[in-house]
Amino acid sequence: MMKRKLYIAVRQAAYFLRWERPLYASYFDLVDQPSADAIILAFGPDVLEHAAKVPAKRRAAMLFPGFGCNPYHNLAYRERALATLRASYDLALANPGPLEVAYREFERLVLCPSCIDIDVVRFRRYRTRLDNLLHVSADYPQKDWRRSERVMQLSGLPYEVFPPRDPHYWRYRSRQLLNRGLSRANKVLHRLGIESSFTTTPERYLSHKTVVRRYQAFDGFVHIAAEVPDPLYIDGKYTTCLLEAGLTGAILFWHDTLQLGNTLETVFALPLDPEQAAAEIRAIRGSLDVERHSRRTREEMLDRFSPAQAVRIRCEKLLALA
Q: Average pLDDT of 173-198?
């Protein structure tokens, strides 16, 4: 049976599409240009307007938090995006979390699970002790990373915030410079009508391998953040860093920032107050079967956030449009 055509419109989210594209190719004939006989998938909020204006048999959007688009806090942006979805899209896909709340008025919104690149996050060991803590995040306005640092400090355990917040940290700077060069090349090629194969990581991120090594070096991962109503930046329900750390077997400590509920059995939900959160970490450390919990954490991440599962659900919805 001939596969249906799918054109994936992507710009800033190309980094995340990298590990999903082969999965889409198992369901669709992926084409390089939009056309009147192809479904178009806007992969990321930054291509929502663009994909609404090109030829397509059917239109769908895969929406993520971030990319300078915050429909959860920015109501003006939300209204514009909803108007575009209603006028031009047959389907919108989003992960449970803040976008679920922001776009719940769109009648053709479908929730699908988040996913992480499980093949890249190499597993080395189950944790047997909880003797040190890590927080990983890019230095964006919504991260509230100083609160996580304070929680770790008050726990009395050795800890690290990564990457270092020194803006001159050489690995951080070299990644930024590489990204800027690739981004300029992508823009030039886009103007010439050429599909670029240059993939950049998001601005202010380090290479994946570098970050994964930090997850593997620590026993616990802490992400305790207050809600920061920034007009541009927002996190998902769980951060990618938290889920990837869990995939390595790290013990996870998290705050339900947007009060959307903790749906993961192995993630410890802690209060926002740093002293209370630190006290709970100490109490958990004193009673936890660390190796058993580490094993359960990795198993839950593999079960819940597999790309194959997430893309299968999306593709079934896309195929139903044709």
A: 56
